[in-house]
Design brief:
Length: 93
Amino acid sequence: MALGKKTGGRQAGTPNKRTADLATRLETLGCDPVDGMAQLAMNPANAPELRGRMFAELAGYLYPKRKAVEVKSDDGPSVIFQISTVPPSPEVL
C-alpha cells in the first residue's frame, strides 16, 4: 500500500467472481429473489410466520438495522418500598 492509498485489485463495488456467476445464473433462470420474497410476503394464503419473515428480510434492503442499546444504571441511592396487606397494630401507630 503506497501512502495509505489502494493500489491494484478490484475497484470498490465490483462483485467477486462467485457473486457475478450467481447473478448471471439467476438472470438466465429468470429468477429475481427479491421479487419472489415480495410475492410470498404479500400472498394472504401463506402462513403469517412466512409472510412476516419475508417482510423482515425485505425491510433489510431499505432500512438499516438498529444496534442494541445497553442500559446502564448508576449504583446511586435506591428507594425500597414495603407493602403490607396486614393492618398495623394500634401500638405501632
